[in-house]
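Worked problem 6 (solution included).
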Amino acid sequence: MKSKTMITVLVEDHGTKPKLGTEHGLAIWIEAGDHHVLFDTGQTDLLLTNAMALGVDLTQTDAIVLSHGHYDHTGGLAAVLDMAPQARVFMHPEATEPKFSLKDSGTHSVGMPEQARQALKGRRVTWTATPAIVCPGISVTGQVPRSNPWENVGSNFYLDQSCSRPDTLPDDQSLWIETEQGISVVLGCAHAGVLNTLRYVAGLTGTQTFHTVVGGMHLLHALPERIRQTEATLKTYHLHCLAPGHCTGEYVMEQWSQIFNACYSPCFAGAKITL
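Solution. The predicted structure is:
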């Protein structure tokens, strides 16, 4: 596809306008010609309210891509499928598995809400363990190879409530968009690693640079060396737009707003990026 593409952030932890709600979650609307793709669905049905405020018609949704099976990316799935029953869902086979997080306050369920699991029954689902075309010009990575040993999943995630089985989040996937300006990448949380993901997309597409990288980068609790290496590698891709948000971490975002300067644009609710 070689036409103008518009990215609109529907849900994020921060907002750009008073009329938009915010929550810990992510949902991104992509308009590519006649195709409409929703990348993640936030934590609740807040994306419906924000979409209306931003003039986005979710009934036109052709495809829903789930970056992984955490509640803050899948919570609004049932609500969107009620509005757009024709939409095909692209997700890794392990995205529906139970998921838990161990914190100081105890063990918490962080997986896909039961309502979302039930909403998937009878729907058009494409299971993306491997790369897949979502629509002309837009593809999903499927499971991302982990070649950087220092890019871990970034938290204490488990597959069971007793926290005896670590969850490496193989369901983490991202999306890339092809335009005349180059390849752009949309990240959910990049649990597989920002650089692992970009390296994989570069190999799949044959690109040496990226136009835009937008979304969550899960650097909130990352060690300084990981942040430094991520920053250094991002510079080598000669980005036109870097738009981090969600789980990237406010400290990293503040630092990058100065380091990347002209190409920096925060991924807040209400933000729009034209490719």
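Discussion: The mean pLDDT is 95.
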